[in-house]
Known about the structure:
CATH architecture of the largest domain: Orthogonal Bundle
Number of strands: 3
Number of domains: 2
Radius of gyration: 25 Å
Shape: globular
Largest sheet: 3 strands, antiparallel
CATH class of the largest domain: Mainly Alpha
Amino acid sequence: MPILSEGSPSIADLAPKFVRYIEAELCFARSSVIKYEDCLRQIIKMIGDRPVISYTADDVLDLKSAMLRKNHSTARQVSILSALRQFLDFCRKLEGLSVIDPNEIVVPKRPRREVAYLTVEEVERFVGAIRLTNLRGKVSISGLRFRALVETLLGSAMRVGELLSLNRIDVDFENREARIIGKGNKQRTVFFTERALAWIQRYLNARTDDHLALFVRQDGLSRLKQPDLWRPFIRYRKVAGINKKITPHLLRHTAATQLLFNGCPIGHIKEILGHERLETTCRYYLGLDHRAAKQAHQRYLLYEAPGGRMAQAA
Length: 314
């Protein structure tokens, strides 16, 4: 017997429980949870907050039309519709509500964007622009910290949130690795280059605090946070004379593309980056190495018969 809409919970009624579910049961990252909360608020603004069993396919069309009128990007549309699908799935499976089938909601395909990254020459210009001494010629802890952080991002391909969550004891200098809790609350191993570890050690040797975090704020009393990074990234990009917008995530792309250009198999790149699916790695990086593609084209696209002659048309 179908559930009557009168007295049935609305999106706003179920949102708090849904948020707890995706965070505690599905292990969504905090940033993803916040994004889903915002998406539900946007859905309510655009099509109203009614009993969830009262929404129909026409309401989904109204939602899509509203997003187009607001000139939402494809990525934003994907986020909102994905949140709606996840929410409806929750309503069906956990709340037992007769809502529309989430699988019938068509989500637009994300357009493939060109991956931005730094060239080897740009990397050296950027890190070389970071001041390691102050005006009195003494060691600049802030400069040394930023250089160590940049070198670690470039030498590990970690997400910046993963890096900032590390403690000193987490880094295994002998084996050049660390165990971290990555995206989706999943544990994985990350690896460091010798160059990255050398800069980390140099930074740690210069510190006088006893805070357990690998990277700390200037006062040595609290862990470094992401908002602390934007200003030095902007400053040293300008000093280096690089026009690209340099961010921690761009350094992750830089590390990934360097692995690709140096011949690292895409499956290994997936593991190094901590991607859950190979498809994600392929979508970002598989078509980037145009030099290798051209070499492969010249090597393999041949029309010679076994005897060495060009095959004749039948």
